[in-house]
Task: structure prediction
Amino acid sequence: KQEVTQIPAALSVPEGENLVLNCSFTDSAIYNLQWFRQDPGKGLTSLLLIQSSQREQTSGRLNASLDKSSGRSTLYIAASQPGDSATYLCAVREEYGNKLVFGAGTILRVKS
Amino acid sequence: DGGITQSPKYLFRKEGQNVTLSCEQNLNHDAMYWYRQDPGQGLRLIYYSQIVNDFQKGDIAEGYSVSREKKESFPLTVTSAQKNPTAFYLCASHDGVWTEAFFGQGTRLTVV
Result:
């Protein structure tokens, strides 16, 4: 059974810092990996989608990498801002069943 | 604007009562999903549907039921058999395994 783990569970940083969020998964039979942002009491907003054949994707200050063989992904946030404060979730889409399996998330707080 | 609409935003259920959560999408996506989110946990899959008139159980289907009579609609019924229904429920859709998933804004269900 696919298991997705996110480390750290929570992170507090001063504004302007660069930071890295980690995501690992146990089964490499995936179509892709997606990073989401969730604000309190809200739905999920898609940040980046990386296909299994890709190594990284970039959007603005965000850069996500994927190492499928080792079952790892990282989300790099450059020059963090207080508005980046949210929960960040990663999810893998399994080849078997096409299901999206989520990690528990990393709660990020950027202090001004 | 295209998107996923969940209603209601807040729902209160009495003991022994069935309630139905609505999920409507105008993205023309074939696949739709229902997830449950509990505090401090990742999203857990309840049911999913890859095409109209077909759906499959997810990891925590007991006490829930769904229907998929129209492409744009995927309602979730929380039955009296679900003993701990208090949670945040999220609906999602996507247009093929290689595309990103989109989420609604969620319904918070509380047992009173």
In short: Chain A has a mean pLDDT of 96. The radius of gyration of chain A is 13 Å. Chain A touches chain B through 25 residues (CB under 8 Å).
